[in-house]
Design goal:
The chain has about 290 residues and is an alpha/beta fold. It has a single domain, classed as Rossmann fold, CATH 3.40.50.1820. The chain has 9 helices and 10 strands. It has a 10-stranded mixed sheet with strand order 2-1-10-9-8-7-5-6-4-3, with helices on both faces. The N and C termini lie far apart (about 40 Å).
């Protein structure tokens, strides 16, 4: 068994056991629509072929219910590699939008952040036609995808450029995300310092800490084997948000999982967080 150290919204630490082995990636159950362009024709009129090819998403959604929640999922890969895929969420009542985005060096800064915002805006505007609830859209991703999650969820300008408020999001769930300025973004901006020297500027989610952000769930691996600085950066983010008065911040450090395995192992935490937020939302509408 593995153990998870959990900081709940009420700042209470508990330990929860989790299984040693997690399922390999499989296609989720439900209706799947693939290769959806999330930029409209006007946006694509001046786009190059790379943007047209890369800026697409796949959507899996339940067909036996309406008003369902959706997770917009951004893959990892250091902003330079990776491909869109469905995470093993194992929650058939929740839709998943697996997003592709432009990658460096073909994609120039800040195209990957703009793409993440555009994909999220598309889901919010269009999930209703598939039966989903636009008020129940969560964003999440692993590693670089977690960085994109935190950036568009915390800095309101990215979604505002798409005509959406970040406060329309039901929750943010970055998994093993860099929350100082991403190491590749630092390079693109000309920084020549060592990778682990943190920079906190406009491209750092930490810089955008505020009390009025959506509920936030920070999922990390075991600090003994995680990506260096990753757990500690997220601890600082959690502390900053709480000290600013954010009402719902959860911090999970998952014992025995490294930077890679927490991407899949964190799904148990994500399911729990989403279902709890949905229960709170549903209770408010009664």
């Amino acid at each position: 068994m593995k153990y998870i150290s959990i900081l709940l919204c009420g700042c209470v630490f508990i330990s929860v056991s989790c299984l040693n082995n997690f399922a390999t990636e499989k296609m989720p159950a439900g209706c799947i629509v693939t290769n959806i362009s999330y930029y409209d024709e006007n946006d694509l009129a001046s786009a190059d072929d790379y943007q047209k090819e890369q800026c697409r998403l796949d959507l899996c959604y339940p067909t036996n219910k309406t008003g369902f929640a959706t997770v917009v999922w951004f893959h990892g890969g250091g902003l330079t590699k990776g491909r869109r895929h469905f995470p093993a969420l194992k929650a058939p009542e929740i839709a998943i939008a697996a997003v592709g985005y432009r990658l460096s060096p073909k994609g120039k800064l800040p195209s990957f952040i703009e793409d993440a915002a555009a994909a999220t805006a598309w889901v919010i505007r269009n999930i209703g036609q598939y039966g989903g609830d636009s008020n129940k859209v969560f964003i999440s991703g692993h590693s670089a995808g977690g960085y994109l999650t935190a950036m568009i969820g915390m800095d309101p300008k990215w979604l505002a450029a798409c005509g959406i408020s970040n406060q329309q999001l039901a929750g943010l769930i970055p998994v093993s995300a860099q929350v100082t300025t991403h190491f590749h973004v630092k390079k693109l901006r000309g920084d020549k310092g060592p990778e682990y020297r943190p920079i906190i500027d406009e491209y750092a989610p930490l810089y955008h800490s505020a009390s009025n952000l959506p509920p936030i769930c920070l999922i990390l691996g075991d600090r003994k084997i995680e990506y260096k600085n990753r757990v500690e950066e997220n601890e600082l983010l959690a502390a900053s948000l709480r000290n600013l008065g954010h009402p719902c911040v959860e911090f999970y450090e998952m014992g025995g999982l490294d930077h890679g395995t927490v991407g899949e192992g964190g799904m148990v935490v994500m399911r729990q967080f989403i279902r709890k937020i949905l229960k709170t939302m549903n209770s408010r509408t009664r």
